[in-house]
Amino acid sequence: MADITTWFTLGLLGELLGTAVLAYGYTLVPEETRRRYLLLVAIPGIAIVAYALMTLGYGAIQVQGHAVYAVRYADWLLTTPINVLFLALLAGADRRETIALVALQALTIAFGFAGALAPTPINYGLFAVGAALFGGVIYLLYGAVAEAASETLSDLEMSMYRTLRNFVIVLWSVYPVVWLLAAPGLGLMDMETASMVIVYLDVVTKVGFGVIALFAMTNIGSVSDDEVVATAGD
């Protein structure tokens, strides 16, 4: 199996390519959505820095005989709240719900990091708190934020919201499983395997989220343009 540095290098290349594709996509989305679209470019853009540092051998903390990649948690602390912020803005959620959603997601990462640093059994307690906070994120995305989306979005936009929400929640749910099986938890998964899985998840969630949104936004823009042309023809 490839070593950790190889996986980090592949992750860096994936994030670089994804950022380039999404940056080009900025020219394709409707002008009125470009400011929000920049959030999608920022997600893999931030990950480039994290993966560059890890590839060069920086950002690891030795804890109880295993490495905890602090720079990876810093990446997640910045990028995953941007994911949910994008969903809240898309849905037209109010300020209170948006702040709660972003804060819960950030705290999920913070407690996961704290658990990775803490000794047993404290690590499991911190992990459980993080999991409960992530449950709050899911509750909002399927509850209040989804209700706001249903009141403000068109059918195409609502389909985009549901697809992005389900995509990110399903894939994010794999990360806690890796945490439990890898060194911070039960230690049943070696560092190389854990790194391989996390790199794959990182590229798919960050770049995939943006690409799905890009295609949906360009499709919505095309439909809107067709409607304007049809109205003008009438």
Which word captures the global form? globular
Q: Give the low-confidence spans.
A: 225-233
N- to C-terminal distance: 64 Å
> How much strand?
under 5%
Q: What is the chain-wise order of helices and strands?
A: HHEEHHHHHHH
By helix and strand content, what is the structural category?
mainly alpha
Strand order of the largest sheet: 1-2
Oligomer state of the chains in this structure: single chain
Mean pLDDT level: 94
* DSSP summary: helix tally: 9
Largest sheet: 2 strands, antiparallel
> How many strand elements?
2
Q: Bin the helical content.
A: over 70%
Question: What is the alpha-carbon Rg in Å?
Answer: 19 Å
Describe this structure in words.
The chain is mainly α and 234 residues long. The protein is built from nine helices and two strands, in the order ααββααααααα. Strands 1-2 form a two-stranded antiparallel ribbon. The chain is globular, with a radius of gyration of 19 Å.
Q: Which SSEs are present, and which pair or pack?
A:
Layout: H1 4-25, H2 34-55, E1 60-63, E2 66-69, H3 70-91, H4 95-117, H5 122-142, H6 144-152, H7 155-172, H8 174-181, H9 191-233
Antiparallel strand pairs: 1-2
Write out key terms for the chains shown.
234 residues; mainly alpha; two-stranded antiparallel ribbon; 9 helices; 3% strand
Can I get a quick summary?
The protein has 234 residues and is mainly alpha-helical. 80% of the residues lie in helices and 3% in strands.
